[in-house]
Amino acid sequence: MTATGLDVFDKTVQTTNVWLNEIMDDLGPDRQFAWHVLGVVLRALRDRLPAELGANLGAELPLLIRGAYYDQYQPSDVPNRDRSVEEFVHRIAEALKSGRPVDAGEATRTVFKTLAHHVDLGQSAKVRDALPKGVQALWPDGIGA
Questions:
Q1: CA–CA dist 48, 33 (Å, integer)
Q2: pLDDT tens digits for 70-114?
């Protein structure tokens, strides 16, 4: 018997846990914190992408993670025009203030690495290429390039 009684929910819980485990490998063994970091970085990324590309990325995400990705989404406000890596990372740092201290650049690199590992290579490359050059530098080498 499945844990929830619905295979689709069990699969998304399992997949989400794989993503969170990868994030915890880099940021420490706190699942709640890993979930918070994942959501913050994904929403900052979403808001930097053109709406169509952001929707295409959202369609590739596991169901639970897709919910975090679309939380508080305002399509009329995208794409955000942060031009520099500093502006992008500052936005993430502000949203992470409520958790334990973490370097926002490291958190961003960790989520980008997990994202690039699990999202289709072609889609991952499109997302990376839509970002300003400085933000692209946070993307893992050789993945989605």
A1: 23
A2: 999 988 877 887 779 999 999 999 999 988 999 999 999 999 999
CB-CB contact of 69 with 42 (8 Å)? yes
Please state, in angstroms and rounded to a whole number, the distance separating the CA atoms of residues 6 and 1: 9
Question: For residue 12, what are its two tokens?
Answer: 């998304």
pTM passes above 0.85:
yes
- 3-state SS of the chain is CCCCCCHHHHHHHHHHHHHHHHHHHHHCCCHHHHHHHHHHHHHHHHHHCCHHHHHHHHHHCCHHHHHHHHCCCCHHHCCCCCCCHHHHHHHHHHHHCCCCCCCHHHHHHHHHHHHHHHCCHHHHHHHHHCCCHHHHCCCCCCCCC
Q: Identify the residue whose tokens are 């930097």.
A: 48
